[in-house]
Amino acid sequence: MPKPKDAFDRLHPCDFYEPDELLDPDLMYTVYEIARLLQGLDADAELDVADEEILLDWAIPWIMRNSEQLVVAEPPSDEEPGYYGLKT
Length: 88
Description:
By secondary structure, this protein is an alpha+beta fold. It is 33% helix and 9% strand.
């Protein structure tokens, strides 16, 4: 249900990192790791499943929006996610 803006104490700009600000050019990351980095967490931070699902809501559109600046690698196995990195 929508809420009025004055229901919130603070509103923040909706700014996102640029890929080269977020990712190391020599590394590849899973969508889960990118989700953590977008929130200022370590790529390997422990999260519960519910929090991780919320973070994925931010990461997937970010990857799609920045796809021209990224490369994709096949997952090591069918049970693992793919990897994303900076296009060089």
